[in-house]
């Protein structure tokens, strides 16, 4: 056994706390579990021993009321009864981080669920953390390539930008995220599937990502059937994983689906804890939590996190509370419309309703001129579409309308893109130039794009991190945290702390 491995075990022993605080469940109502004790702080992870099933339920302190500790569980409350023992771990939720996470699928507590082996690491990142200081954030001057023509050509994104994808249900949000994940030039993808259908998880991994995309991605999954706390904390775990890779100097693409379901989970927790409902039933904590999550993406003095967040718009109402709040926080928005989707126009990006606020910072003046010319052609056609469709417009009556009609076919071909098609940035710029009639020299856009390849790669390469680490016969030290990193799901009952050491 190497000295390094012995050191890890000694470190684990030194950080272990032999004295645990314990309490007893006194009330279970709805989503909330109340207990008398243990001594704990808000956010602390506790375990509830379930004697009927012989298993352990992991929970978190969400409130303190007089002598009562209010907890919510990461798993269903089946089997928990009055008198069940509650043991405080003394820790807030954190996730073990290393390059071994690449190619893995984690649950809302940062535990692997894909059966590919352990992810133990001496380094842990807190799930709930503060965003980088505003004055340490680097300015955004480079673009990130998504491989989607409608975005790269007309809504360019900067490395470290945060943008929202707004759409109703069934319009193609998840499909667009899959295209970006597979085609982007970012070093690492961190993908959060929060509150999504269970069926979509394997479809996303196998169809949208593929083996090559998965090798440089980390997925955090909390499906719609999980308790609200699991959906909420899954979002924070994804942010923590993205922050780790950013701190290694990587350009990270954080793909988050969806903010709406994150907000609904926070609303369920707030209502259960006794918060008063405010705007459309959303509690004040919802509007407090969203900027604290979304601001964690962006640049730092080490790397970048480019955040693409989907927002499920209720009834296609772009002014509903969650959509309106998120739009005010992010650095732009991409709107997907049902009207375009019904025409089989995919991705259904409505360019005229979308905006990238950092577009001027990551494009040259000639590129901006070309983008403006194409948007003007699209706007003129949209304003006169009804007149053109019924044949009321006579060719030659207006030069602007004539130009818009002539460019219509080219614009449609440029914006339509098959799911499996990747659009290199050079071809996108050439297409933009052809439609706009503005010649775009390479010197105008190449300085903003990193064409030299990844700025960061894992020490063993992507394939090593994704698969070989799981198969390697290497003895690992136990994690420093008492929160488990074993495969998700209830495990066997854990022995209670020694009688003499329980407070």
Can you describe what's shown?
With 503 residues, this protein is α/β, with parallel strands linked by helices. Helices cover 35% and strands 20% of the residues. It has helices spanning 3-15, 149-154, 173-183, 198-215, 228-247, 259-272, 284-294, 321-329, 338-342, 365-383, 385-389, 399-415, 425-436, 442-445, 462-471, and strands at residues 22-29, 32-36, 44-50, 55-65, 68-73, 85-92, 94-96, 104-106, 124-126, 143-144, 157-158, 162-167, 188-194, 217-222, 251-257, 298-299, 304-312, 332-335, 355-356. The strands form 4 sheets. Strands 8, 12, 13, 14, 15, 16, 17, 18 and 19 form a 9-stranded mixed sheet that branches. A 6-stranded antiparallel beta barrel has the order 1-2-5-4-3-6. Strands 7-9 form a two-stranded antiparallel ribbon. Helix 3 (173-183) runs parallel beside helix 4 (198-215) and helix 10 (365-383) packs across helix 12. It is elongated.
Binned, the helix content reads 25-40%
Major β-sheet annotation: 9 strands, mixed
**Strand residue percentage:** 15-25%
Radius of gyration over all CA atoms, rounded: 25 Å
Number of DSSP strands? 19
Give the N-to-C terminal Cα separation.
Answer: 36 Å
Shape: elongated
Structural class category:
alpha/beta
Ranges with pLDDT <50 over ≥5 residues?
Answer: 464-480, 485-503
Task: Average the pLDDT over all residues and give the rounded result.
Answer: 87
In DSSP terms (H or I, runs of 4 or more residues), the helix count works out at 15
């Amino acid at each position: 056994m190497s000295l390094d491995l012995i050191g890890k075990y000694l470190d684990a022993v030194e950080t272990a706390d032999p004295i645990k605080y314990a309490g007893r469940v006194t009330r279970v109502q709805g989503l909330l579990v109340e207990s008398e004790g243990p001594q704990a702080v808000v956010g602390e992870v506790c375990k509830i021993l379930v004697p009927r099933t012989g298993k352990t339920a992991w929970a978190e302190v969400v409130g303190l009321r007089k002598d009562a500790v209010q907890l919510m569980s990461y798993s269903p409350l089946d089997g928990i009864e009055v008198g069940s023992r509650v043991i405080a771990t003394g820790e807030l939720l954190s996730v073990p981080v290393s390059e071994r996470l690449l190619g893995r699928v984690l649950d809302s507590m940062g535990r692997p669920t894909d059966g590919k082996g352990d992810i133990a690491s001496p380094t842990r990142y807190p799930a709930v953390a503060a965003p980088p200081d505003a004055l340490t954030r680097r300015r955004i001057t480079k673009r990130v390539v998504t491989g989607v023509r409608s975005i790269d050509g007309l809504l360019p994104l900067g490395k470290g930008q945060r943008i929202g994808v707004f759409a109703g249900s069934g319009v193609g949000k998840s499909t667009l995220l899959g295209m970006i994940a597979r085609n982007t030039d970012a070093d690492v993808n961190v993908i959060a599937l929060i509150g999504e259908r269970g069926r979509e998880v394997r479809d996303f991994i196998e169809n949208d990502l593929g083996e090559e995309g998965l090798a440089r991605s980390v997925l955090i999954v909390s499906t719609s059937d999980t308790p609200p706390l699991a959906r909420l904390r899954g979002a924070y775990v994804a942010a923590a994983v993205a922050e780790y890779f950013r701190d290694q100097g990587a350009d990270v693409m954080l793909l988050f689906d969806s903010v709406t379901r994150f907000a609904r989970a926070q609303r369920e927790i707030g209502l259960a804890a006794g918060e008063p409902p405010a705007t459309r039933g959303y509690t004040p904590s919802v509007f407090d939590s969203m900027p604290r999550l979304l601001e964690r993406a962006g640049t730092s003095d080490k790397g970048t996190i480019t955040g693409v967040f989907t927002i499920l718009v209720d009834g296609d109402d772009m002014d509903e509370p969650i959509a309106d709040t998120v739009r005010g926080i992010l650095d732009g928005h991409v709107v997907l419309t049902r009207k375009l989707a019904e025409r089989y126009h995919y991705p259904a990006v409505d360019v005229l309703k979308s905006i990238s606020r950092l577009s001027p910072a990551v494009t040259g003046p000639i590129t901006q001129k070309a983008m403006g010319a194409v948007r003007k052609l699209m706007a003129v056609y949209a304003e006169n579409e009804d007149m053109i469709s019924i044949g009321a417009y006579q060719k030659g009556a207006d030069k602007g309308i004539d130009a818009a009609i002539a460019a219509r076919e080219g614009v449609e071909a440029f914006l339509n893109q098959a799911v499996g098609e990747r659009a290199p940035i050079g071809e996108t710029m050439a297409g933009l130039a052809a439609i706009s009639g503005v010649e775009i020299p390479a010197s105008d856009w190449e300085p903003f794009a990193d064409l030299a390849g990844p700025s960061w790669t894992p020490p063993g390469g992507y394939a090593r991190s994704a698969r070989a680490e799981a198969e390697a016969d290497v003895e690992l030290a136990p994690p420093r945290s008492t929160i488990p990193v074993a495969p998700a799901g209830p495990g066997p009952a854990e022995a209670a702390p020694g009688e003499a050491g329980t407070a």
